[in-house]
From TrEMBL:
Coiled-coil ranges from the UniProt annotation: none
EC number: 1.3.8.6
Keywords from the UniProt entry: FAD, Flavoprotein, Oxidoreductase, Transit peptide
Any one Pfam family match given in the protein's UniProt record, by short name: Acyl-CoA_dh_M
Lineage: Archaea, Methanobacteriati, Methanobacteriota, Stenosarchaea group, Halobacteria
Cofactor(s) listed in the protein's UniProt record: FAD
Acyl-CoA dehydrogenase/oxidase N-terminal domain segment(s): 12-123
Name of the protein this chain belongs to: glutaryl-CoA dehydrogenase (ETF)
Protein family: Belongs to the acyl-CoA dehydrogenase family.
GO molecular function: glutaryl-CoA dehydrogenase activity
C-alpha cells in the first residue's frame, strides 16, 4: 500500500508486525465478503471474537491481558481495518476507545476486572451512548438523566445513532445526575438486559451499512451505585473518550483512502481505452498524483499525532485538526477513485463507492467537520463560536 515517503523505515518490528497481521486479516477475512455485508446491511459478527483474539480492541491500554502497544501500532491497526471497511474500524473504535477506555481510565477495580478482559477478548460487546434525538453536536444539552433511588440510580432518556447498541452486552450511558449539585454528567455502565432497556436497530441507512446502528431507550432503568464510573464527572468524561476515538479515525480514514488509491491505480494500469491503459493518459496520472500527495500529507499528520500522544503532549484540538483534515481528504479522494473506475466504479465489485458512502458517516460522527472547524477556530482565536 502507498508509502511514498518511506514511513515504513520509522516503524519498530512490533509495529510492522501489528500492521501486517491486520492487513492479512483484512485481505483474507474481510475483503471477500464485506461488499455483500454492506449490501445486506449486516455486520460480520463472527469476526468479533477473532478480532479480540488478535488483540485489535484497545491494544494501547495497559494491563488486563491487553497488548499495551505503541500509539503508532494502534493507529496502523485502525488504518488497516478501515482499508477493509469503515464499519469494521467503527466496531473496533467503539469497543476500544469508547467503551474499554472509559472503564480503564475512570472505572472501579471491580468494573475493570469484570469488563476489560471480556471486552478485550470480544466475548462481550459494548456501545457508547452520548448522542440523543434532539442533541447531537451539543451533547452537553442532553436530557437523559439519573436520579438517586435507594442504593443506586434510576435512568430515563433516549440515545440514538449508537453503533452496536442492538448487539451490545453493555452500554456506557452518559446522563445528568439530578441528585448532585449542578447536575453533572456521569457515566453509567448499563447492561442491556436490564428491565427498561431497549436497543432498537436503525434500518435503511445508506452509509456505513456493514455496521449495526441503533437506539438506546431507558425507561426507569435501575442500576446499582457500583455501575457508576467513579472517577469522572462532567463533559470531560465523554469528551476524553471522543479524543481517543477521533485519534483512531484520523488514521482509519487514511486507510480507506489508501485502499481507494490502490484500487484506482490497479484499474488504471489494467483498463484500456483508445488502445492503451487509461493510466497512460495525463488526466488520469494527475488524479493519481494528487491522490498520492493528499494521502501522504494525511499519513504524516497521523504519524506526528502518534509521536505527540506517545509522549503525553497531544491536545484535543490537534486531534480535531487531524480528524477534520484526514476524513475530508478521504471523502474527496474516494470520489476521485470512484470516478476513475467509470461505470464499474458504482458497483459493489470494487471498494471505492462503498468507501464514498461510508465516509459520509465518518465525516459526520465523532464531531462533524463543522464542529471541528469551530474547535480549531476557538483554539486559534481564543473566542468560542459556541458554548
Ligand atoms: C452511523 C452513525 C453511527 C454513530 N455512532 C454513534 C455512537 O456510537 N455513539 C454516539 O453517541 N453517537 C453516534 N453517532 C452520532 C453522531 O456523533 C452525530 O450524528 C453527530 O454528532 C452529529 O449530530 P446530529 O446528527 O444530531 O447533527 P446536528 O448536530 O443536528 O448537526 C446538523 C448539521 O448542523 C451543523 N451544526 C451543528 N451545530 C453547529 C454550529 N454550532 N455551527 C455550525 N454548524 C453546526 C452540523 O455540522 C451538521 O452539518 C453516530 C452517527 C452515525 C450517522
Amino acid at each position: 500500500m502507498l508509502d511514498y515517503v518511506d514511513l515504513e523505515s520509522e516503524l519498530t518490528e512490533e509495529e510492522r508486525m501489528v500492521r501486517d497481521t491486520a492487513r492479512e486479516f483484512v485481505e483474507e477475512q474481510v475483503k471477500p465478503d464485506v461488499g455483500q455485508h454492506w449490501i445486506d446491511g449486516t455486520f460480520p459478527k463472527d469476526l468479533i471474537p477473532e478480532m479480540g483474539e488478535l488483540g485489535f480492541y484497545a491494544p494501547n491500554l495497559e494491563g488486563y491481558g491487553l497488548p499495551n502497544l505503541s500509539e503508532t501500532a494502534y493507529g496502523l491497526l485502525m488504518q488497516e481495518l478501515e482499508a477493509g471497511d469503515s464499519g469494521l474500524r467503527s466496531m473496533a473504535s467503539v469497543q476500544g476507545a469508547l467503551v474499554m477506555y472509559p472503564i480503564h481510565a475512570f472505572g472501579s477495580d471491580a468494573q475493570k476486572d469484570e469488563w476489560l478482559p471480556k471486552l478485550g477478548a470480544g466475548e462481550a460487546v459494548g456501545c457508547f451512548g452520548l448522542t440523543e434525538p434532539e442533541h447531537g453536536s451539543n451533547p452537553s444539552a442532553m436530557e437523559t438523566h439519573a436520579e438517586r433511588d435507594g442504593d443506586g440510580y434510576v435512568l430515563n432518556g433516549a440515545k440514538t445513532w449508537i453503533t452496536n447498541s442492538p448487539i451490545s452486552d453493555v452500554a456506557v450511558v452518559w446522563a445528568k445526575d439530578r441528585s448532585s449539585d449542578g447536575t453533572p454528567v456521569r457515566g453509567f455502565l448499563v447492561e442491556t438486559d436490564r428491565d427498561g432497556v431497549t436497543t432498537n436497530k436503525i434500518d435503511e441507512k445508506l452509509s456505513l451499512r456493514a455496521s449495526i446502528t441503533g437506539e438506546i431507550g431507558l425507561n426507569d432503568v435501575h442500576v446499582p451505585e457500583d455501575n457508576v464510573l467513579p472517577d469522572v464527572e462532567g463533559m470531560k468524561g465523554p469528551l476524553s473518550c471522543l479524543t481517543q476515538a477521533r485519534y483512531g479515525i484520523a488514521w482509519g480514514a487514511v486507510g480507506a483512502a489508501m485502499d481507494c488509491f490502490e484500487t484506482a491505480r490497479d484499474y488504471a494500469t489494467d483498463r484500456e481505452q483508445f488502445g492503451k491503459p487509461i493510466g497512460g493518459f495525463q488526466l488520469q496520472q494527475e488524479k493519481l498524483a494528487e491522490m498520492a500527495t493528499q494521502i501522504t500529507n494525511a499519513q504524516l499528520l497521523a504519524h506526528r499525532l502518534a509521536t505527540l500522544k506517545e509522549r503525553g503532549d497531544l491536545r484535543p484540538e490537534q486531534v480535531s485538526m487531524a480528524k477534520r483534515n484526514n476524513v475530508r481528504m478521504a471523502r474527496e479522494q474516494s470520489r476521485v477513485a470512484r470516478e476513475m473506475l467509470g461505470g464499474n466504479g458504482i458497483t459493489a465489485d470494487y471498494s471505492p463507492m462503498r468507501h464514498v458512502t461510508n465516509l459520509e458517516t465518518v465525516y459526520t460522527y465523532e464531531g462533524t467537520h463543522d464542529i471541528h472547524s469551530l474547535i480549531i477556530g476557538h483554539d486559534l482565536t481564543g473566542i468560542p463560536a459556541f458554548e
